[in-house]
Known about the structure:
- Chain A has helices at about 15-20, 25-40, 45-55, 55-60, 70-80, 90-110, 160-165, and strands at about 140-145, 190, 205.
- By secondary structure, chain A is mainly alpha-helical.
- In chain A, helix 1 crosses helix 3.
- Mean pLDDT of chain B is about 85; it is low at about 15-20.
- Chain B has a four-stranded antiparallel sheet. In chain B, strands 3-4-5-6 form a four-stranded antiparallel sheet, with no helix packed on it.
- Chain B is an alpha+beta fold.
- The interface of A and B includes residues 135, 144, 145, 150 and 154 of A.
Amino acid sequence: MSQSEPELDPIPQEWLAAYADGELGHADALRVERWIASHPEARELLRVQEAFAGPAFRELVQIPVPEDDAFDRVRDRIAAAVVHVRPPRRFPWAIAFLGLATAAGLLIALNLRPAVPGVPGPRAVVEVTPEPPYEVASDDDVEIVSMFDRDAPMLIVGRHPIALRAPAWASGSDVVLEWAEPDAQGYFSDMAGAAGTRSVPMVLMPPAKGR
Amino acid sequence: MTAFWRPLVLLACLLAAPARAEDAVKVTVLAILANATDDKVCPKCGPIAKQIQKSYPELTGFHIERTTVREVPVGKAVKFPLVESAEVAVTIEEKVVDGKISLTIEPPTLGAVTINCKCGKTFPILTRFTTVAGEQLIVAVMAEACAAKK
């Protein structure tokens, strides 16, 4: 390219192929020719494009077009090669369903039928297993250790603690009073059933005032 | 916490967790309502109703209003809801001695009752609590720790 000639705009790459195929319009074809004239290094590329566009190349890469009935023939061959598996028959299920529905309908109809006086109608018996009742403790299973006496009548099982062992009251001969301290006021507790009186329970009583 | 103490604390937690689980006793509390107006006795409270009717024949209808099952740790009072606002506190005093569990029950309107009851047996007690509908409350308590029988 001489220095005096103006710089040509680059042409799109695909124009070269289109030019080689003779697909460009006259104006565009002239532009390509001018551009190739100013870019001799592109001539080799154009030559290659023209070689691909030539009839020799078309023969080389000619893609066979299938005949119109080719698809039908291939489909028939595939169909012949496939082993047909017979779908499971739904008929037995339908029979079973119909049988169950009929039986259920009969049961419902028989139960809804008005009872004939004197003739017991058939009834579906549903057996329900009852849950076992709670096992209640017996008097021997329970030992009442402590409770308020006022609540004793509310006991359902078990015996009041006092009933388990009758109290054995100590008598005067059962106890030896070794030491007794006076209370804050200096009084001593009084004792019923003093030593020697065997039959009387010995009870420690609060001090009597004024003694 | 220092790196030295961390494994020791972790070990203590691991050892303590099963011990707590072992100390708990499964307690079932039934809130049974009795009335003198009908004679319907629920199947599960049949034996209890029979026992109650020995002392209170005027009570003829029985049904379980509420059942609550809880794990009760030994020595700790746990409250069980009954009916309306009523509840019962149950404390496991001692786990199992001679096949019996020692427990204290504090039913509504009654004072505390401490009993030694055979494992898996239900201890019923009548209360003075009556519902708005006029039914009398019976509290039934069952403690189970039979796996740990000594």
